[in-house]
Design a protein that fits this description.
By secondary structure, the chain is α+β, with helices and mostly antiparallel strands. It contains 4 helices and 10 strands; from the N terminus they run αβββββββαβββαα.
Length: 212
Amino acid sequence: MDSNYVAALSQPSPIKATLVRIDLPGAPLCLTDGGFAVFDAGEGRGAEVYVDEHPSYGVLDSVPSIKDGAEAETPRIDIVILPPAGGAGAAALASPTIQGVRVQWWEAAIDWNTGALLGAPSLKFDGELDRARLTVGESWSLALECGTQAERQLEPNEDWRLNDAFHQLCWPGEYGLSNVTNITVKDEWRSRPENPGLFKRLFKVLSPILGS
């Protein structure tokens, strides 16, 4: 964490700001809850202006705390945006065509006198957009569910499992897996049989026969 940013947070009344960057096709959507801020995310576009309200997409409402992954899950966040009435901006953000775009979230501190960022913002999340949930009532809200790239490693992929089709794709004409079944079921070496009593009885019946 940047030392200037840490020093700014230690002040009696620091101005905190949340920065969210969604890498939409054409131009990124840069939102903040701190009025406006100028920040270079290091994506090759130079310094970008983060605004508190976008004419098409609305305003940044909240970024809840990160949901820690449990067992076969990875960390996720929900970024809530209040889109303007009409639905064009909400429809664009909820479109399946932008699923997977990069989403970044920083926490920053702003100088009282100049409005500039104090130190380097602290990166809290770097992932991708998964899906959107639109809530329509007295006001519209759009929750963008985001996950990390590591989540893709947990997705089942039938095409890459150990099976005869994929085996022959790698080694044409090699039929070693043609008659193999249940190869996705893990069977530990020297594991105890499901019904050991059955094997014992069979052994007692077959022992005299085999001995003769």
